[in-house]
Design goal:
α11 packs parallel to α13. The longest helix has 25 residues. The protein has four domains: 76 residues, no CATH class; 101 residues, Pdz3 Domain (Roll), CATH 2.30.42; 225 residues, Alpha-Beta Complex (2-enoyl-CoA Hydratase, Chain A, domain 1), CATH 3.90.226.10; 44 residues, no CATH class. The termini are far apart. The chain has 515 residues and is α+β, with helices and mostly antiparallel strands. It has 15 helices and 19 strands.
Length: 515
C-alpha cells in the first residue's frame, strides 16, 4: 500500500507538470518543417488504420489535398493556428466521426473549481444557426433582457459571418449530407471561439432585434448560494435520475417515456443519447408499461441524438422487431492487430492506471481473440450486434413512428436505417446527419501529432446496418419530410410531433367510422 500511495503521488505531480507543459507548448510556434512532418504523419496514420478512407473521396484527390496543404505552410504556426489549416482537409474525407481534437487550454484542479462557481458567458443561451447567421432562441436567465429571436451580429467587433466562414470548413458529416451542419454548429460554435480566444470574463456583443441594433456587454457572473445548492441537489443520483439518465450540466434527462393521451393509446419515447447507462432497465420498464396499457402507437424520438452505444440500440431494436434480426453487418478493420492500437491507458487517473496495468493481460488477449480474418481476406472484429438477436417477450407490435432530423447521427442513423429497411416504422422529419449506409467509429486509436501535439482520434471499425445499401452517400431519408424553422422553435411548436399526432388521430377517426 505504501508503494501504491507513492506511485499515485508521483503521478499526480507529473499530471500538474504535464498541464503546465501542454499549455506552454500550445501557444509556442512550431516551424514549417515540423508542421509538414505532422501533415505526413496524419495521412500515414489514416491510411494505416482507417478502414474506409476513400469512401467519399478518391485517393488521388486526397493525396492532392494533403500535398497542397503542405505547400501553404511556409511560416511558423501555433498548434491552434495549425489546427485551422489541417482540420478542413480532414473534413474533406467526409467522415463525421473523423476530426482533430481542438487544442484547448487545459486547467488545473484549482482553476476548474473556480470556473464551476461561475456561470457561463455564452453558455447561458440556446442558439439557432441559419444561413451562417446566429440567433438566440432561449434566454432562461433573462441575461441583459435579450429576447428570443435576437440575432448576434458580432462579438468584440468581429462579425459572426467572419467566424462562420472560418468554422464551417471544420465540420463534416457522413458523405454528402448537409442537414447535420447547422445542428452541430449550434453546439460547437463557441468551442471553436474559446479555442481561439480563450475563456473570457466579458464580451461586447452587437445584437439585432426587430430591426434595432444594440450593444450588449456580457459578463461572467458568480453563482449565488441558492444556485450552488440547487446544483448540489441536482447531482444527487435518485432512482429516477439513474433510469432516465439525468444530465446535471443541462438539467435534463437523456431518456423520457410518457403517454400522450388519457387512455394510454399513444406512447412517446425520447432518447437524447444512447449512453447505455441504466438503459436496459429503462427499456424493460417502458415496454412493460406499453404492453400493460395495450398501446396502439409508439412515437420514438431520436432527433438531436448524436448516437452512442451499439449495444443499446440493439437492445432497443429487440423491443421493436417482430422476428429475430441482425442489426449490423460484420465490422471491418484494416488489420487483425488494429484493436491493440486503442490507447488502453489513455486519460487514466493514477488509481485507474494501476488497476488497468493489472488487467492488461486480459484486455490484450480479449482483443486478439476478437479479431479474425474472413474468407474474403478482410479483417473483422467480433461484435454481438452482428449476430442474430431474438425479440423481447414484451416487444411492441403496434404502429411505430420515428422522429429524425439533421442532428440524428451515428447510432441514431444506424437504427433509423435498419428500421426503415425492415419497413417496421414510418420516419418523420429531416434527413439524418449520419449516413444511411453506415459509418466508421466503434472504438478509436488516439494518435498525437509529434510536433504540434494535436490529438487525432481515428475510428477503427466500419459499422454498417444490416440492410441493402442505397449507395446515395447521404443520410437516412424520412418517409414524410417535415422541417422545423426558427419561428417554430420560438413559438415552441413541434411541427414534426404535431404531424404524427394529427396522423394518428385521423387513423383513429377513420377506424371508428369503419367500425
Amino acid at each position: 500500500m505504501k508503494y501504491i500511495l507513492i506511485i499515485i503521488f508521483v503521478l499526480n505531480i507529473a499530471s500538474c507538470t504535464s498541464i503546465e507543459k501542454y499549455n506552454k507548448q500550445r501557444t509556442a510556434l512550431v516551424s514549417p518543417e515540423k508542421l509538414r512532418e505532422d501533415v505526413d504523419f496524419t495521412y500515414k496514420k489514416l491510411k494505416e488504420m482507417h478502414p474506409k478512407l476513400y469512401w467519399y473521396i478518391s485517393k488521388n484527390e486526397l493525396d492532392f489535398k494533403f500535398d497542397s496543404l503542405k505547400t501553404t505552410i511556409n511560416k511558423p504556426l501555433t498548434p491552434i493556428e495549425f489546427y485551422f489549416k489541417l482540420q478542413p482537409v480532414i473534413a474533406k474525407i467526409r467522415e463525421g466521426h473523423l476530426s482533430l481534437g481542438i487544442p484547448m487550454k487545459r486547467f488545473s484542479k484549482k482553476e476548474i473549481k473556480a470556473l464551476k462557481n461561475k456561470k457561463g458567458l455564452f453558455g447561458r443561451f440556446e442558439y439557432y444557426v441559419e444561413n451562417d447567421r446566429l440567433y438566440i432562441t432561449e434566454n432562461k436567465d433573462s441575461v441583459e433582457h435579450i429576447k428570443p429571436g435576437t440575432e448576434i451580429l458580432s462579438i468584440n467587433n468581429v462579425a459572426i459571418s467572419d467566424y462562420m466562414k472560418k468554422y464551417r470548413p471544420l465540420i463534416s458529416s457522413d458523405g454528402y449530407n448537409t442537414t447535420f451542419h447547422n445542428y452541430y454548429m449550434n453546439d460547437v460554435f463557441f468551442n471553436f471561439y474559446v479555442a481561439e480566444k480563450g475563456i473570457l470574463d466579458s464580451a461586447k456583443v452587437e445584437t439585432l432585434f426587430n430591426n434595432e441594433r444594440k450593444m450588449v456587454n456580457l459578463k461572467r457572473e458568480s453563482k449565488n448560494k441558492e444556485e450552488l445548492e440547487k446544483e448540489k441537489i441536482g447531482k444527487k443520483r435518485t432512482e429516477e435520475k439513474k433510469v432516465n439518465d439525468y444530465v446535471a450540466f443541462t438539467s435534463s434527462y437523456n431518456r423520457n417515456f410518457k403517454f400522450l393521451d388519457k387512455d394510454s393509446t399513444i406512447a412517446y419515447m425520447k432518447i437524447q443519447s444512447f449512453s447505455k447507462s441504466f438503459s436496459d432497465r429503462f427499456y424493460k420498464e417502458s415496454f412493460e408499461k406499453l404492453k400493460n396499457a395495450a398501446s396502439s402507437y409508439l412515437i420514438l424520438d431520436v432527433r438531436n441524438n448524436y448516437g452512442g452505444s451499439l449495444s443499446e440500440i440493439n437492445n432497443l431494436y429487440s423491443y421493436l422487431a417482430p422476428e429475430p434480426f441482425i442489426l449490423i453487418k460484420p465490422s471491418q478493420l484494416t488489420s487483425t492487430t488494429t484493436p491493440l492500437k486503442t490507447n488502453y491507458f489513455r486519460q487514466s487517473s493514477p488509481f485507474q492506471f494501476i488497476i488497468k496495468t493489472l488487467l492488461y493481460p486480459g484486455y490484450f488477449f480479449s482483443q486478439i481473440f476478437s479479431s479474425y480474418k474472413g474468407k474474403d481476406g478482410i479483417a473483422y472484429y467480433k461484435m454481438k450486434e452482428s449476430k442474430s438477436t431474438k425479440p423481447k417477450k414484451d416487444a411492441f407490435t403496434g404502429k411505430v413512428f420515428v422522429l429524425i432530423n439533421g442532428g440524428s447521427f451515428s447510432a441514431s442513423s444506424i437504427i433509423s436505417s435498419k428500421l426503415k429497411h425492415d419497413k417496421r416504422v414510418t420516419l418523420v422529419g429531416e434527413e439524418t446527419g449520419g449516413a444511411n449506409d453506415g459509418t466508421v467509429a466503434g472504438f478509436y486509436s488516439y494518435q498525437k501529432l509529434p510536433n504540434s501535439k494535436i490529438e487525432l482520434p481515428i475510428g477503427l471499425l466500419l459499422v454498417q446496418p444490416n440492410i441493402d445499401f442505397t449507395k446515395t452517400q447521404k443520410g437516412v431519408v424520412p418517409d414524410v419530410e417535415i422541417t422545423q424553422n426558427m419561428q417554430d422553435i420560438l413559438d415552441k411548436k413541434d411541427v414534426q410531433l404535431d404531424w404524427v399526432k394529427a396522423k394518428i388521430e385521423k387513423e383513429r377517426e377513420n377506424k371508428k367510422i369503419a367500425d
